[in-house]
Amino acid sequence: MIILALKIPLPPILEPISWIIGRWETETLAGDRFPISFEHPYKEILDISLTDVPMFDRPPVNVFIRAYTKEGSEYNEVGFMTGKPFRELTGFQEYNKSLNGNDQIAIEMVSNTGIITIEEGMLRNGEILLTLKYKRATPAAIHYLLKNVTILSFFFPFYFDISFPP
User: Fold this and answer.
1) Cis omega before residue 166 (within 30°)?
2) How many CB atoms lie within 10 A of CB 9?
3) With contact defined as beta carbons under 8 Å apart, do 120 and 106 qualify?
4) Which value, in Å, is the radius of gyration of the alpha carbons in the chain?
5) Taking 80 as the threshold, does the pLDDT of residue 60 lie above it?
6) Which residues contact 32 (CB under 8 A, 6 or more apart)?
7) Would you say residue 65 has pLDDT above 80?
8) Residue among 152, 115, 155 nearest 130 (CA)
9) pLDDT of residue 96 exceeding 80
10) Which of these, 78, 105, 125, 136, is most buried using a 10 Å CB contact count?
11) SS3 category, 157
12) Of residues 66 and 8, more confidently modeled
């Protein structure tokens, strides 16, 4: 395991997902991929990095995905991931809220094919469980969209799974 120092300080709100910051690489034996499929096996690189200047009040991490085949097909996505701790002090009084719960996570992405996705989920015991909430394409990209993809899961450490319903 290689531990690298971050170039900028990690905001405390991002500490629960600090383990995912870095570069992740995978190579497949098939062409199945979310949100588009390839005809051949492919290699995928997932880069997650800190944002220099937060765009909103809640600091996100940048997400960049590059998937490509030896035959020349390539797919790129850019976006961001952000989280909301269950026990967050907002300045508002909360009544009847349980004492324990899961942190929330969201990823918003746009691709070079014109596909836009929003996934929301939770962080529980070092595991990120995401459900696809929004998927749209520009008219020219509609043929790229897969049907019935519902869950993307990241498991810490080092397990990546894309689940398709039967």
Assistant:
1) no
2) 7
3) yes
4) 17
5) yes
6) 162, 164
7) yes
8) 152
9) no
10) 105
11) coil
12) 66
* 2 vs 139, more confident: 139
User: Residue 56 — pLDDT band, cuts 50, 70, 90?
Assistant: low
Does the pLDDT of residue 147 top 70, yes or no?
no
Count each helix (H run) and each strand (E run) in the chain, helices first: 0, 9
The dihedrals phi and psi of 13, each to the nearest 5 degrees, come to -65, -20
Residues 6+ apart with CB under 8 A from 12: none
What single letter denotes the amino acid at residue 62?
A: N
* Nearest residue to 18 via CA among 31, 34, 1, 5: 5
d(CA 98, CA 53): 33
CA distance 144 to 114: 9
Task: Spell out the domains of the chain, with CATH numbers in brackets.
Answer: 12-85+102-163 (2.40.128.20)
Q: What is the mean pLDDT of residues 142-147?
A: 54
Chain-centre distance of CA 114, in angstroms? 17
Q: Two tokens at 86?
A: 């269950």
